[in-house]
Amino acid sequence: MSPVSRRSLLSFGAAGLASIPLARIEAIEPQSWKGKRPKNIIFCVADGMALQVVTMANHFQQMTSGRHSYWTELMERPDVATGLQDTRSLSSIVTDSAAAASTWGSGRRIWNGQLNVYPDGTKLRTLYSIVQEAGVKTGLVTTTTMTHATPSGFSIVIDNRDKEADIAVQHLSNNVDVLLGGGDKFFSGDKRKDKRDLYTEFAAKGYKVAKDRDTLLATKGAKILGIFSDSHLPFSVDRNNSAELQKKVPTLAEMAKVAIENLKGGKNGFILQIEGGKVDHAGHANDIAGQIHDQIAFEEAVKVAIDFAQKDGETLVIITSDHATGGPSLNGAGNEYFDATQGFASIANIKASSGVIFDAIGKKPTASMVQDVIREKSTYGLKEVEAQAIADAINGKSPFPFLELQKGPQSVLALVMQNYHKVGYTSLNHTNDHVLVSAFGPGSQYCHGLTNNVEFFDIMLAAKGLKFENPAQMTFEEAAKHMEKHKDAVFAELEPWQTSEDCGCHQHNH
């Protein structure tokens, strides 16, 4: 099935979407900025993070370590502004990560699946290209591929987010000072179809290249390209249970610290995006252990940013998400809901992501094989009927073939595991929730209340005393007409080497 038919690009009816206003909020003018301007901006993104994930991460840490989660502690502080963000895109009230990140990167709403470009081909200027002209250093840190949608939103202009091999080449010319994440297959000459060794080309431009944790931690005072996995970085729950991964792959907090150390000190400051991208991937997989552990890892990186900002006194830290994913919630269970607490606490016994669990189960499992793996990876003793449902789903015989949003193996595994940890999901997809925003430092007052996603572009530019207006916001009707003409070319099938195939995110779940 082609990406176009999976997306069902125009099937929802122009009239319905067009009736939702796309009016721009009044842009923040640089001259109207109140108070001290930040020298630096650190923009932290927990991709796919629903408010419920913050809640559950807090409760999980209270149960396992006796303390609140770091983000919860921040929200209790009077010097931290807290609000919500509206996340819609040009083409849907449910956004994808490319369109969401592009709102921050260009100040305009974009069609799902595209990066800083309108469906008629109009290319928009990106936040990073604008601030670089003013001498501001820039950085991107992520637990996804370096070429994935969210880090790309600040600096990449391309008609299809799935063209990750092309995005890697754009990074070469975009001169972002620090690039840390995954995606070796898009940079290595041995793996790229065109045989370009982008590592050598980055090194020729003055970048130090790091491919393991020790090399990264020893890198100081230079432009850096750090790539630590073939595709996305591993889930934190898997890294936490593997000495080999701990030795090779840095944590998000470690990458954030290195990035800040190498960006700080310039006379015009820096802007750094830090993304916890695996929170989203776990949401797509309905994997609560994956989601909570990566949320905790993200908040550890946020602490690195806040610690720096508190000492520096000139740094604005914005913490948010691009959208929510999966609709997770802890459900009341048992008499007086007592079973909910005990079930939720059992998540601490899950020692692997659902992807690792599926790999261990294998492709043609029996119910007994499923029971053995689940017991080993989580201590849950599945009933035979539960294990058989999972085995059937893996073998292509889902117990719920009639359910559009909950019929594959991942959904069936999550539905069965819900009997034990009591956390349920609504789908494997993004949702349209407002997402949490917190901010600390000079300019944090502009992030309270409800902020439209497009406003962050103006906030960050105004913080640097800059203003830029991209071409006027395209209407849905205009965009739909152009997309109808060009969709086959824009969203043509790409060869596997060109895209990331091992996550449950937008491009494989259209």
Describe what this molecule looks like in 3D.
This protein is α/β, with parallel strands linked by helices and 510 residues long. The chain has two domains: 28-328 and 429-508, 3-Layer(aba) Sandwich (Alkaline Phosphatase, subunit A), CATH 3.40.720.10; 345-424, no CATH class. It is 40% helix and 13% strand. It is built from 22 helices and 14 strands. Strands 5-6-4-3-7-1-8-13-2-14 form a ten-stranded mixed beta sheet, sandwiched between helices. Helix 14 (278-284) packs antiparallel against helix 15 (288-312), helix 18 (367-378) crosses helix 19 and helix 19 (384-394) runs antiparallel to helix 20 (409-421). The chain starts with a helix and ends in a 20-residue tail after the last helix.
Quick rundown:
By secondary structure, this protein is of the alpha/beta class. It is 40% helix and 13% strand.
Total discrete domains: 2
Total strands: the figure is 14
On the 0-100 scale, what is the average pLDDT?
Answer: 92
CATH topology of the largest domain: Alkaline Phosphatase, subunit A
Subunit arrangement of the protein: single chain
Q: How large is the count of helical segments?
A: 22
User: What form results from the Cα inertia axes?
Assistant: globular
